[in-house]
Design brief:
The structure is a single chain. The protein is about 35% helix and about 10% strand. The chain has 17 helices and 8 strands. Helix 4 links the parallel strand 3 (about 90-95) and strand 4. Helix 1 crosses helix 16 and helix 6 runs antiparallel to helix 9 (about 205-215). The longest helix is centred in the first third of the chain and has 16 residues, at about 110-125. The two termini are about 20 Å apart. The model has no long low-confidence stretch (mean pLDDT about 90).
Length: about 400
């Protein structure tokens, strides 16, 4: 029996609307404990997960305190009751990222949200899971001062955990969105050695050397030259999609119909948000009312400005990071995207429903904060391959 057949327990921090959780559930994990501080996100999560048909602990946020105020004993009691920790369990989470984002405040670890990354790492060390996932924005690696902070976190983890890090783009996994995310993966060294055996364990890169490489190499060189040991997921159908396919580049003149390129339909926003089927789905009528003439005059495919980005029906979307009501514009209609259309661009299942008693701003905010489900599912699958020893057996 493989490990995921016995449903490995997962503790989820910064749960949000649960998009990363869905990816893990789809791979057979059992997300048994959730922590989310924002009450609007809690409502979104519990409505959405219940509408997908999940039951029990998978649809409940067990803890709504700030991660700063909850300690390991409380977390373990809430997650496992009076039972002993299981031999194998994981922790996943994406600390709030505005302080590391190019479009955010860029305050780094000194910002209120930035400090939560350090607290998250502290909780990982206290809980001592078999493996963990730390997800964030690429600015955490690409900006020097943020990378220095990330390295300091990795140094705290390196003696106990074998680490690997990469930037993955949701577009490369069948999501119609150019959205890059940093993933830091850690597995307990002792567990890996016992589970894999000495011969296979030798394939695990020395984390001290890995950190040294990360410190010396530029991010674009690091991912090509560093000694990665973790089997980062790849989808051959979409790998390198942003430069691999001949995407339409110029905005479409008013009154003209764009020519359809020979690119994968799954990566085109029009496949989802120009299909009439979407109009019969939940949350399909929910959108901000258009008031500006820019909704009519902005050209289809013009995403050059910070606001009023109008999507191209035959192209992927820029990152869905909605804030201050700056939701992308529909490619063929004079309005912003609906809640359902935004969910589609995050590869959230159509059965997922956000509640009526949540404001539009909160709905779009929680959608924009989430990890695309297909990307989360791909990462969860790669973790599974390590747990099952597949990647290492193939190389022995």
């Amino acid at each position: 029996m493989n490990q995921t057949q016995i449903q490995i327990p997962i503790l989820s921090f910064f749960t949000g609307a649960g998009f990363m959780d869905i990816g893990f559930l789809l791979q057979g994990y059992n997300v048994i404990w959730h922590n989310e501080y924002n009450p609007s996100f809690v409502k979104a999560f519990e409505s959405g997960m219940k509408s997908l048909g999940y039951r029990g602990s998978s649809i409940t946020v067990q803890n709504t305190e700030s991660i700063v105020n909850i300690g390991p004993n409380q977390i373990l009691t809430e997650a496992f009751g009076g039972n002993k920790k299981p031999e194998v369990f994981g922790v996943i989470g994406g600390p709030p990222c505005p302080d590391f984002s190019v479009g955010g405040k860029n305050r780094g670890h000194m910002g209120d949200n930035g400090r939560l990354s350090e607290v998250y790492v502290r909780r990982v060390l206290e809980l001592n899971p078999t493996f963990f996932v730390f997800e964030n924005v690429p600015g955490l690696l690409r900006t020097k001062k943020h990378r220095d902070f990330l390295l300091s976190l990795m140094i705290k983890l390196k003696d106990r955990y074998a680490l690997d890090i990469s930037i993955l783009n949701a577009l490369d996994f069948g999501v119609p969105q150019d959205r890059e995310r940093v993933f830091l993966i850690g597995f307990q060294r002792n567990w890996l050695k016992k589970h894999l055996g000495n011969t296979a364990y030798k394939q695990v890169t020395d984390t001290a050397e890995f950190i040294s490489q990360l410190n010396k190499l530029k991010p674009k060189d690091f991912f090509a030259q560093a000694s990665h040991w973790f089997p980062w997921p790849e989808n051959p159908d979409y790998k390198g999609a942003k430069t691999r396919f001949d995407w339409p580049k110029a905005p479409v003149p008013l009154g003209e119909e764009p020519q359809r390129p020979g690119c994968p339909e799954e990566l085109m926003v029009g496949t989802y948000i120009c299909d009439d089927i979407r109009n019969n789905l939940p949350n399909a009528k929910e959108a901000f009312q258009p008031k500006s003439d820019k909704f009519k005059t902005t050209l289809e495919g013009d995403v050059s400005k910070k606001s009023f980005k109008k999507l191209h029906r035959y192209r992927y979307s820029p990152a869905v990071a909605y804030g201050n009501n700056e939701v992308h514009l529909h490619p063929t209609l004079p309005r912003r995207l609906t809640v359902r259309e935004a969910l589609m661009l995050q590869s959230v299942p159509n059965e997922y429903i956000l509640p009526e008693n949540l404001s539009l701003s909160d709905k779009f905010k929680t959608i924009g904060n989430g990890v695309p489900v297909k990307l989360a599912e791909a990462v969860a699958g790669s973790l599974q391959s390590v747990i099952e020893g597949k990647k290492f057996r193939e190389a022995i």
